[in-house]
Design goal:
Blueprint: H1 2-14, H2 23-26, H3 32-56, H4 61-80, H5 86-95
Length: about 100
């Protein structure tokens, strides 16, 4: 139940464009806070997945890391660009893109 509540909270926080329509929806650009939080969430899920696989001694680290990265890219790609690498995110932010 707590996971479902957290998912709803993250969705509402990261997808405020769902309430917009027409030109307002087409011209929507996520705020810096929304983009940074989506990058943080993507990195967190990726590191958590790899870390738990290593701790548990799983032989499928590559498959689970790829699945979590694919999921987070699909879910958050149009919010922040889905870099999920803090160095790339800082470089893109510094260049003003």
């Amino acid at each position: 139940m707590a996971g479902a509540a957290a998912s709803v909270a993250f969705y509402v926080l990261l997808r405020p464009d769902e309430k917009k329509s027409g030109d307002e929806f087409d011209n929507y650009k996520p705020s810096l806070m929304t983009r940074c939080f989506s990058e943080f969430l993507g990195v967190f899920v990726l590191v958590l997945t790899v870390g738990l696989n290593v701790v548990m001694g799983s032989t499928a680290v590559a498959w689970s890391a790829a699945a979590s990265l694919m999921f987070m890219t699909y879910a958050l790609g149009n919010v922040s660009g889905a870099h999920f690498n803090p160095a790339v995110t800082l470089a893109v932010a510094a260049s003003g893109r």
